[in-house]
Batch of 4 targets.
Target 1
Amino acid sequence: MKRRTRYTSLLLALICLYGTPVSVAQTYRAQVKKDSLLALIAPTGEVVTPFMYQRIEAFGNGLAPARKRGRWGYLDTTGRIIIPFYYEAALPPSEQLAAVKLGGQWGFLHMDGTPAIKPAFEEVGSFHQGLAPAKQEGQWGYIDTTGEWQIAPHYAYAYPFAEGKALVNNGSAWGYLNLKGEWVIAPTLKQGYTYLNGWAEVQYADGTWQYLNGDGKPLSTPKLERTAPFLGGIAVVRQGTAFHLLTPDGKLSPALPYEYCGWVVNGRMRFRQYGKWGYALPDGNVVTKPQFDNVLDFAEGLAAVQLRGKWGFVNTEGTPAIPLQYDNARNFAGGLAPAQQEGKWGFVNAQGKWVIPASYTDATVFQQVQ
């Protein structure tokens, strides 16, 4: 099931990369580590939980699943334990319901920890558009918020709904169901991704890729060897060995003269040429010439770049914004970026000043709490 939904990449692109500068500090949280234990931290530097968690997942509906001594519960943004550490596994809440595992079976809780759907499923996914994928007796279907089957469990695998459609495997191929459980795209695909911005990326039996719109009609362009989501109205695709820019109306740019191209994120695309990395505009014109050993995508107007073992940041015009001085660095979110110096992590602002001193063994990008 590798990369079917691109959840990790999309969280990065749509939460971290498209984040806005923080205005209320309490709406952002990051994870920091001391030795082998995690805590939550605010942009002010306040550590809002003790260092006692083995793992903390992303926030959803204001709560984050966390694991302590092998059991899972839920924390709010202040660090309060809202749902006790009682469960074998837990997922971030969605649509005001949290999936938890108990006694080897999955069910759902309300946000106050009271039972919503009793544990009766072998596996589940999150609720989206009122339905959640669930597995029972080896088959997947979709349940509603009362736990009743709305789409009977007849499938080998099922993913959450997005834009009214869900990616489902019938045991031999992939297709898409609507909210009524009807095939809107027949199960003839080798693999696919969930819908985003009106399009789904799908792979045919011959190994080539294409985009399907909401009606299941393919984009009017030749089949491709690689696709990417439409972000900002542009997707970076590969045809043969060459990279191109593609728009939703099917217009394919001439081949780009690069060895590798990333997604177009916040109006800039990272690319590699002759073994070095730089940035280009959505039309392919170079903004920052290829000169770095490694780069990250832009977030909040800045991008982390590495040269000769040191990291710094450049702005969207390609001008150095923060000198190459860190041992490692990550994306900006909420006005701060994790940075590492002398083996310790802290957070710097857009001027490169330490706002949260480097005193942790690891640190994540800030997440805006939903």
Target 2
Amino acid sequence: MIRILHYYVNFSKPIQERSFYQFYSLTFNTGYISRTKMHKKNFHLKESDCTIYFNDSFSHLEKIADKSKCILLIDKIVYKKHTKIFRGWEIILCEGGEEHKNQKTIQSLILQLISIGANRETILVGIGGGVVTDMAGFIAGIYMRGIRFGFIPTTLLAMVDASLGGKNGVNAEVYKNMIGLISHPSFILYDKRFLSSLPNKEWVNGFAEIIKHACIFDRTLFKELQKNHLQAYQHDQNKLDKLIAKNVHLKMKIVQKDPLEKHERKLLNFGHTLGHAIENELRLSHGQAISIGMVAAAKISKNILNFKETDEIIALLEKYKLPIHHRMNMERILPIMLKDKKSNGDTIDYILLKSIGKGVIQSLPIPRLFSEFQNVPHAVLH
């Protein structure tokens, strides 16, 4: 069975271990052939489990979920590029841009579910980037008080971050993800065929979250990223497989420990307090906004915690084509930051770095935070 760049071969071996099933992928790409084992991993969470299928194929969805009960919520661009594989499925198409991630879109999509006849047995499958998986998870959490759902992420950012952890929601004007819930998908299926048509800017977006994980959790990963470059991961499927799996496990390990973000899960917000404030206000991509937010947080870490590796972070972001500054009006941005979900009234839980690989949660008084932003001119230009 040929699917774009992939030949999938089922050797029909029995399941020997809980986390693995014996399929293999022969991936043909420019200049090499790689043989990658497809496997699954069950993540046990407080109220539900999530099974992640790595290096898989869309065709396996029929074995994961009853096709007669599934409705696929698909990004229009993804559908246009891969129309043939979706034939025979019940489909709702949606826009994938951040500007569509709002209550108006949610109501429109819910009305389409009602029109189709979706009920409590329906399985909603979000297929797209982070905007689509956010909306699919949010809709599934509120439709008829909750239905089963899963994701097939189609961007690198969604694969390593956005589809993971159960956070689902929409924006309220410029305020990111202010309306939402935490509800985990039953499954996430990774089919790398979707990355074959991904624009380069979306690859860059994904590396912002990968670099974030390295900064707060994993110095070894940071060093690996320093030694490599974007094209190395684009052209070496084995290297990419390992990178995706590494980031999935880094994030899900924290989510398992702190599913409701009461403690250490807050570390995943490194770069996001400023990043979320400027993403919609300045019409930046998520990766661009988070990159700028990480530079600001590194510089604040230098002032408060004597962090000595800011230059290394800036160099790595630039290596992966991410921005390190942007002109902005802080008088407009700071009030948006005050509405951030990490704000506790007089303080904000800001994520800083003691060292690369060691993030910390720092409760900063609002006046102190404002003062710190005046001292990071290379990250925040007035």
Target 3
Amino acid sequence: MAETFDNTEKLVDPEDSEKTGKEDREPVNGSETEDFDLLAVKAPAGSASAGEEVPADKESGQDPENAGISPEDEEIINSFLTPLDEYAKKEKARFKKNQKILGGCYEWLGSFVYALLFVVVLFTFILRLVRVQGESMWPTLNSEDYLVISNLAYEPKTGDIVVLQVPSYKSGHPLIKRVIATGGQKVHIDYENWTVTVDGVTLNETYLNRDSRPMSRLDNCPTDFVVKEGYVFVMGDNRNNSTDSRSSLIGQIDERYLMGRVVFRLFSLSPLGTETNPLLSPFAESKDAD
């Protein structure tokens, strides 16, 4: 008898499907079944676990870094790496050299800045630069000489070369003269013999520019007088070509108008062969045309 097959598709409920799957996994004839999971199979002792990647060095016994590299390839790689190592060493040495040079430059620059600041402070508060114009102090000083003067804790005394100002004379521009006497000292001037006596002592004025004429009295400067306290009496070394305390235009100088004493001559632009005082060799510009 022929068998009849039903070709119609049978609809299966998802819940029934789950139950069916459970039933399929239930033990048959009272025996239990195990899920066979390849990943759960334990690897033999001492070998890599399942699913774990086995390192190449453990498989082949080679160095991991050189695994799969033949000696020829290694030689080629070394031929490239050796020049690079040498270049890196040279660059490192050059860097250290440049760093040393740069450090030296910074050190030099710092020293220069400190030196510059020192000079600025020195010539702002302690020293001043003056320039001589005129022949009233010749032959000791020459026109266009540059001098350094200082007024730091200065007390005038006989023989000092000073820079001074007279507000009523030539708009108070600076003059350069020599101190003959200070406050309270008695002065006697012998115009015929070119001698000056201070407190009974004749000055040894070897620096004078003498001539055959008597020393000029200018505005009939007295022969004997006493310098007022707080004042100084000054004259130029070129006595017959100097406007100084013998003149009523200048007279005795208030010590407050003394700008400073000449410390040394910085340099001279005078022609060679001109007689000068080598011991006077420091700032404002000072003009002395008298």
Target 4
Amino acid sequence: MICFSMIVMKQKFLISCFVAYFVVMAFASAHAKPVDFLVDVPNVYVGMSQEHFEEFYPTEISRTYRKDGDEEWITYDYTYDFAPGLEFFERYRHRAYDMVTFYFVDELLLGWALNDRAEIVREYLSEYCSQAFIHYIPKMYEAISNCMNKIPIEVFYEITDRSRPVLFTEVHYKGMARFAATSNVISFEHDPPSFEKGFTLIKLSTELGDIGTVPAIEGVIYHELAHRFLVHGGEHYIREHERDANRLVEAWGFKEELDAAKEIFGATPHAVTDADEAPSLEPSEQENLEDPQD
């Protein structure tokens, strides 16, 4: 009798687990968000409260964050330091750029996914991209999003580091805003730390959205991201940096987008000498420049 009772209880327990699993999967599916139970994370379980979750994984150590109504997404570096002792790392130790995203609804954890690049990009741009692109210049936002989704993972990982992130903002070419405009960067109480090592500000003219195609705008953005990855900049303008940036963009596999940018926006017609004076370029010299417009 005791053995029979234990078998019945075990069956009921297994049935309850299956029911709970399918309820969670159905709810997550209804919200169209990833749920990946194959990724092992210590101390984490579906249905745990966000408050309890943050006792183990505080938002202060997260990479990116996004909130939309009662839904929240938080992404962390999935490294050995983040989750020590996992067999996962014995199998995938060569993967240095893994990131895990957790999904909450009404402050309850519904699931998590490994390397959901599209979601991580949405999170990043919600923090570091001008809302003007998101709401008013969709073509430019599409180009920015495409670039962030397609650049090599090691580049993406580097330029989205919160200690020195890339920010995207607009520069207006008509109206009063072409003379002066204000951009605000606001930190909220529970935001993870940012800008400890500075930041890179990529200023994109709104004219790009008026006269350029999405691939051509991407070409311009790739060029600027290459400058950031190569750590260009400083007191003097160096023309060779433009060529280096273009070579890197082509090495990433985006020559077509770069060529589209050159065709629509032209070459960079300026350079600075060691004496920090802008030389006058002959037409033949301008034709030989291989650089898209900064």
